[in-house]
Amino acid sequence: MNSPDTLLDISIVIPLYNEEESLNELYNRLSQVLDGLGKTYEIIFIDDGSTDSSYEILGQLYDQTYNVKIYQFRKNYGKSAALSHGFSMARGEIVITMDADLQDDPKEIPALISKIESGYDLVSGWKKKRYDPFIKKHSSKLFNWTTRVVSGLHIHDMNCGLKAYRKSVIKSVSIYGQLHRFIPMLAHWQGFNVGELEVQHHPRKYGKTKFGPSRFAAGIFDLLTITFLNRFNKRPLHLFGSIGLLNLLAGSAISIYLAFYWIFIKSSLSNRPILFLGILLIIVGVQFISIGLLGEMITKSSHPEIEYSIKNSLE
Fold first, then answer.
1. Which residues are registered as beta bridge partners of 13?
2. Cβ neighbours of residue 247 under 8 Å, at least 6 residues apart?
3. Residues β-bridged to residue 198
4. Which residues 6+ apart lie within 8 Å of 171 measured at CB?
5. In sequence order, which ranges of 4-77 are alpha helices (DSSP H)?
6. Best label site of 27, 31, 251, 287, fewest CB within 10 Å?
7. What is the pLDDT of residues 169-217, one digit of tens each?
8. Helix count (H) and strand count (E) of the chain?
């Protein structure tokens, strides 16, 4: 068995929740692929509070093998928490993440590693042909389109569980809540080279999907959160000021038009609802700009230490 401090070539990080039927088959398929690579590796399972016999089955695998590590959460914390813990435990120079439901194919791992070795820092799988329920499939398309527009990162499948990372990426990107969906986006914003690879997707063989409508709504809120925290955290006036300026200009334009109408046409404005709209837009615009200025004052007074992502250094 390798020492806990030994560096390895590859770490496979697998979060799971109630996947008892797939675990033995997943390990057998994984080990067959990884043994053929001629590289040192470990497989890290994070049991996210399963209520079935998943942990017992993993314990049997641990007793029979030398390259498996298992962590069990006391309750279900979510995929981001499981991945974050797996990343902190990984010793591989290249880290592969995948789901435990057998929909991700271990045979794609050599191609992912090859693409990382060609110069990418993160490679995300693209399930071009998906075997998911109708709602999940089409809500995912909408979610990915929205994320591409917001992030400027043009990959097709942001939330594919099958990904490959250089170790430097997982040490730089902090995830919590449900932010695992946005790891490529976060890495891209930090200057890492992000690519994608078309991968094969299989129908779910055992169990049932954990996807629900609430996860789509949560994804939109998380997208808003990380966009604000990563792009406007140090310059809140750019966000609130832009919104306020648009409202202020629109309200001013309406007010100028009505003033011209009242002065030259001599018509009463008491029956013009647009007057109240113009006044409202001006008030809202001033409030947004004020919020942005207050945010700038708070940011400046707190003097947070700015962290930069360093690619290389010579000392």
1. 44, 97
2. 281, 282, 284, 285, 288
3. 126
4. 87
5. 23-35, 54-64
6. 287
7. 998 888 776 778 888 888 888 889 999 999 888 877 776 665 555 565 6
8. 10, 7
